[in-house]
User: Fold this.
Amino acid sequence: MITNNSSSGAQDNAILVDNARGEMDAQGSASKGRDPNEKHLNTDHLLGDLKGRTISGTFITIVAQAIKFLLNLAFIMALARLLTPKDFGLYAMVTTMMGFLWIFQDIGLSTATVQRQEINHAQVSNLFWVNVGVGGLVTVVVAALAPAIAWFYREPRLVGITLALSITFLLTTSAVQHIALLNRQMRFGAIATIEVTCVLSGYMTGIGMALCGYGYWALVGANLMQVVIRLVLSWLISGWQPRLFSRNAQTRHLLSFGANITIGNLINTLARGLDNVLIGRLFGPVAVGLYSRASLLLMRPLEQFTMPINAVLIPALSRVQTEPERYRRTFLRVYEAMALVTFLFTGLFLALARPLTLVVLGTKFEQAVPIFAGFTIAALWVPLTGASTWLFQTQGRGKDWLFASLVCSSITIISFLVGLPFGPVGLAISFSTAGLLFGTPAVYYFAGRNGPVADLWSGIFRYIPLWIVVCSVTWLVRLPLVNSSPFVQVLVSAPVGLFAGAILIFVVPAMRRVAFSLLDILLELKSRTSFFNAR
Assistant:
């Protein structure tokens, strides 16, 4: 399935990553037609040195994600010690309700802009105004629902939080197409600048407000600041200016694709957010605060791991969608590498559930330990099922994504209802197990039944022994250290567990081939970035 020394392998490496130099090339490329805004849509210049662009750009994207991860970790650790579980619970109650509508910030139109081989300024402008119109409408709806949300949870303080956060819909939708155009032209250096700056600004605002005693408003302030900074920087850096809405721009097919993606994502969002709603309603803000922090402690690192790959692969695969064999090889190389890294590192989570939770969140969140442990099974399938959705997006298969979302959302809801009688811990275990046993097969079926990629199962079965070895060894090493500090337990046990996993990778030929393939990519990355640094 994966080779290391073929010419196609070298060709595939070019698709795995991006290049920040795309920013300069995009600005300098000739515009198509008289409208200067057309230069922001052109992608022809990407094909001249695609390998150089992708390799050096990946370095920038990975560094940006590493910075965001560290900033997020510091933010979580700081606020977990400055605020109370109830503060997090009040914020989570509102954001969970709003999460059902957050999907309308994009409505699938950014994917349409990135995925299309040919698109013009009038079409993107129409998509911009549709985004803004929907964002404004959702802002009004959320603000109007503020009293109802407070009544549902029997918590009057939620009115102010909801009103303050409602404006984020309008602000975010006003930047959707600008970010999409940066993605289309693979200007990930610009995107990295925007994301790191807005995250840093938001987190500094939140910590400052927490230190000044604003309580849960610190979380609201951090959210608002990030949205405002992202809007301003995306307009300034992109340089694209929308024109007035045009009736003859032929955007119906783009809206149809976006509608299918949006409905599918909305169904997933509604199902996935139901857990916080049920816990908040039945068990109160403290319980939902513990549950949301435990979920975030697992899901945020997984997001930070997949986001840079997602950012690169969607535009890159979209550019080669007319070359089925190259598309297939490229996707599978990335998918296999993701599976190897995922099972290697997530094998630590269950064995180190208690010390990890205490190190990151502090002793006030000790009751979140069993909840986090229940979620660790989800780490086995969340990154890989997320990667399989790239097939829907880059192949323009909105209807398949919609059907897959319906099935998976039904499985998620049933898992919540099964686990709810056992409290937050039971709900976490039920969700994680159901996703592995039923949700993943459903996504794989719909993703592989059309298109050039069908063999996704090896990414799950082949690496289960790796997870078992890492988890078992880590747990055995930790046993004599249970009376030591949580930090010492993590510091000693994690490296030993990873070393045991590395030995297994070296012994098993299939794993070893994937590891060497990943090493080739990393060496190529190092050589390319060294070259550009020298220049």
In short: The chain has a mean pLDDT of 80. The radius of gyration is 23 Å.
